[in-house]
Amino acid sequence: MVPKVVFSFFINFAAILVLLLPQTADAQGLKIGFYSKTCPKAEAIVLQEMTQVIKVAPSLSGPLLRMHFHDCFVKGCDGSILLNSSKNTAEKDAPPNLSLRGYAVIDRVKAKLEKSCKGIVSCADILALVARDVVHLTNGPFWQVPTGRRDGNVSQASDALANLPPPTANISSLKASFSSKGLNTTDLVVLSGSHTIGTSHCTSFSNRLYNFTGKGDSDPALDNNYVAALKKKCKPNDATTLVQMDPGSSKSFDTGYFTQVSKRRGLFQSDSALLQDPQTKDYVLNKASTSFFKDFPVSIVKMGKIGVLTGNKGEIRKHCAIVN
């Protein structure tokens, strides 16, 4: 939503430019070092906790990074992914989010922050900081995170179903989904690089192996040798086995994802779709051999500004899983 202050300066040219931006990208009130006076140790506390977590449970890095994405794409970056179901089914219990893990980690970080600075740091900001730290702790880039988000108090599974692009998405629907959030095609392919860490259940891609067009065939967009390797791990109707999204380096944030996609070994249809658009294909082929570490912080910071609540909007939750 466009802040009220913009309207009071409507004639000002700069304000007109602000009004032309997608409403979902409004980030008025976010700034680097937002807690420098109210909770100066906030970011250090988050990093300290995440260092301990990733040391003993590195497999949580992928799910915790995805949690920030899944939060921001539904009602904006307001921590609504963390709310438990009550009178209605919440986002976290929607089918696209059932594979997320690490909610207890967020609770642990929140408890430490509450002990140090009661009622100051939002759950939405914790998600953004945790995402940055898990990337950094798995050998990826480090960036400054603008903070100042406040927490929302609405979480509905139907919103998750309507806004989260599925792993079966084609390039047209992916571009439309990202565009609706104020993100461009470059952001789409850059942020897809987050699949360099983490795993997926076979159910998210098994149709590509056994029944792609309903005739018992496999997806022709997949490398045949990769299909054979995946079939050894995922039998038909396997709902429990986990497969690395970036085979061989799923716990390391690196260029491996783009290398895999360039070789027609993207695990999801949404990964393979990146080869169906000239712009995204060029990026994939380029980053298969060079780093995307300068681009990723730019795109994830941009994503982290989607639909944020600041100022007097929302609240600072005492517990991330329930509204105050």
How does this model look, in words?
The protein is mainly alpha-helical. It has helices spanning 4-8, 13-20, 42-56, 61-72, 103-116, 123-137, 157-163, 171-180, 185-192, 207-210, 224-233, 256-262, 269-272, 278-287, 295-303, and strands spanning 31-32, 146-147, 199-201, 242-244. It has a two-stranded antiparallel sheet. A two-stranded antiparallel sheet has the order 3-4. Helix 3 packs across helix 6 and helix 12 (256-262) packs across helix 14 (278-287). The longest helix is centred in the first third of the chain and has 15 residues, at 42-56. It is globular, with a radius of gyration of 20 Å.
Please give the order of strands in the largest beta sheet: 1-2
How many alpha or pi helices?
A: 15
Largest sheet: 2 strands, antiparallel
Average pLDDT taken over every residue: 92
Spans of at least 5 consecutive residues whose pLDDT stays below 50 are 1-26
Helix content: 40-55%
Based on CA atoms alone, the radius of gyration comes out at: 20 Å
Q: What portion of the residues fall into strands of 2 or more residues? A: under 5%
Distance between the termini: 23 Å
Order of H and E elements: HHEHHHHEHHHEHHEHHHH
Total number of beta strands: 4
Q: Which structural class do you get from the secondary structure elements?
A: mainly alpha
Globular, elongated, flat, extended or rod-shaped: what is the shape?
globular
